[in-house]
Amino acid sequence: MSASEPVRVRLFSVLKERTGQSEILLDAGDVDSVGAALSALGRTYPVIADYRRWIRPAVNRAYADEDTLLKSGDELALITPVSGG
Amino acid sequence: MTCTTAGATSDGDRFLPSPYASPSNHSLTLLPLSDPEKRRYGRQVLLPEVGIEGQERLQASRVLIVGAGGLGSPLALYLAAAGVGHISLVDDDVVDESNLHRQPLHGTADVGRSKLDSALERLKDLNPHISVTTHAARFTSENAMGLLQGHDVIADGTDNFQTRYLVNDASVLSGVPNVHASVFRFEGQVSVFGAPGGPCYRCLYPEPPPPGLVPSCAEGGVLGVLPGTVGTLQATEVLKLLLGIGTPLIGRLLLYDALSANFDTVSIQRDPGCPLCGDQPSIDKLIDYDAFCGLEAVPEMTVVELNDRQARDTAPYLLDVREPEELQLASIGGTLIPLGELSSRLHELNRDEELVVYCRTGVRSAQAVRLLQDHGFGRAQNLKGGLRAWSLEIDPEIPIY
Rounded distance, CA B79 to CA B86, Å? Predict the structure, then answer.
């Protein structure tokens, strides 16, 4: 991975709908952890701040938590529970 | 307990425990297939992974389906068609016209009937070789363990978080795996929870979101075919568990997006700290239905009341828990402490003062009020509906963002 490659944030369900974005690119130099990424996203997209406690992050398709470190080129998926049936 | 299908005799019984599907107190008694059953299931029996023995295993299996709606339709239809010998259905709803676009278990003539009556009729017609039991009730903490008893798998086709957590808890406490699916607009999630060594729903989502945060199908809408796609994936996982074949979705969450036609799989692990299935569980019985869903309200003040109090010069102390960037977009004043900083900045606030907390919609501020209450701020209240309500009811000059 080149150092300039961004962190690719993928949004699902409610977060995708409320932000109008399915994918957001973050500068890997600005966000070194999942928590930092969520804080940065929450500043731009208040809905992410609203949901933060219920978001299950996954880094490179593996379940992660707010302390999980991010590096250039990582994929961060933000998953929230849905209830419909 | 040995469980047999209706009309079973002991002739030709064989005992074969399934790797995932048998709780310790429940063993399968296999019976030979009849000629009509051999004809009916022939194409499935042809699969070496199924065979005669797999089909007999299905015939001896018992599945509890909670909910006879969007997910319950494909679940019940395909499990019945596949020859799952006993299906129990729990639902307390009646068929509504607005159900029909996604619930093909029911027909137009069934509108106004009990979903269970309609389902029973359809399933009997679809496969007379199986038995179906219906329970016209909500799945509650009072009846959950009783309803689950004697089943090999529970399939969660419910439409609300309360029942989903209850299904999960009952699954873990009874050792019966929970095949989970849920849908939202164009997307679905599928996984297998409560299987030996695998995670449970609480490992993935430790607590339910507060009411109103995640829209239901009624509020958010749903593409009619979506629960069909997701419910058939769910039915597939049920069959795999019963047959003991393939790689079940244990420890994996399958995400399906119909619009982009993408399937994603995220790996999830059992959380050793999970209060339900962790190493030192604190939940050893079903929790009261309403209490664990965050339904207990925090004290609230309406925007009208706040406006009156401000006009009468008896305004409470106002605390804004949004992010600094949001302040530029709209504000009704007060002290700004972002929710994430609140716990470390409590010393800036007076515990004895009347405190009204607000954010954009009232969700973050409700969390803030709970946090404040936990730290002895007995007079903290939430501004109901937040800035949004203020804009709609008091001052349209405040932009909604």
Answer: 9
Q: Which of B160, B264, B323 sits opposite A83 (nearest CB)?
A: B160
CATH topology of domain B300-393: Oxidized Rhodanese; domain 1 (3.40.250)
pLDDT surpasses 90 at B394: yes
Residue B193 above 90 pLDDT? yes
Task: Identify the bridge partners of residue B21 per DSSP, sorted by sequence position.
Answer: none
Q: Do B260 and A22 touch (CB under 8 A)?
A: yes
Bridge-partner residues for B63, per DSSP?
B87, B153
Q: Is B359 a catalytic residue?
A: yes
The CA distance from A66 to B138, in Å, is: 36
Which residues of chain B form CATH 3.40.50.720?
2-293
Residue range B2-293 in CATH 3.40.50.720: yes
Q: Do B323 and A49 touch (CB under 8 A)?
A: yes
How close does chain B come to A63, measured CA to CA in Å?
5
Q: Which residue in B244, B262, B116, B150 sits closest to B192, CA to CA?
A: B244
A14 pLDDT more than 90: no
| Residues forming CATH 3.40.250.10 domain(s) in chain B | 300-393
What pLDDT digit, counting tens, does each position of B126-159 carry?
999 999 999 999 999 999 999 999 999 999 999 9
ipTM of the complex: 0.91
CA distance A54 to chain B (A): 6
Q: Does domain A7-79 have CATH number 3.30.300.20?
A: no
Q: Where are the domains of chain A?
A: 7-79
Q: Which of B3, B200, B217, B277 is catalytic?
A: B217
Indicate the SS3 state at residue B108: helix
Nearest Cα residue in chain A from B267: A62
Q: If you write DSSP's letter for every residue of B330-368 in order, what string do you get?
A: ----SEE--HHHHTT-GGGS-TTS-EEEE-SSSHHHHHH
Instruction: Identify whether B217 is a catalytic site residue.
Output: yes
The tokens of B396 are what?
Answer: 């349209």
pLDDT at B26 over 60: no
Nearest CA in chain A to B265: A61
Inter-chain CB proximity A49 and B227 less than 8 Å: no
